[in-house]
Amino acid sequence: MQIDINTKMITLIGKPLAQSFSARMQNKAYEAAGLNMVFFYTEPEKEQLGDIIKGLRYMNIAGFSVTKPYKVDVIPYLDELDPLCAKMGATNTVVKTATGKLIGYNTDGIGFYTGLIEETNIKVDQCVFFCFGGGGAGRAMCSILAHKGAKKIYITDIFETSSRALVEDINAKFAPVAEWVPYGDFSKVAACDVVLNASGIGMGHSLGETPLPSKFVKRSQIYFDACYNPNKTQFLLNAEEKGCKIVNGLSMLLYQGAVQLELWAGVKPPIKVMRQELLNIIAEEGEPMPVQKKQLA
Question: Are residues 80 and 119 in the same domain?
Answer without folding.
Answer: no
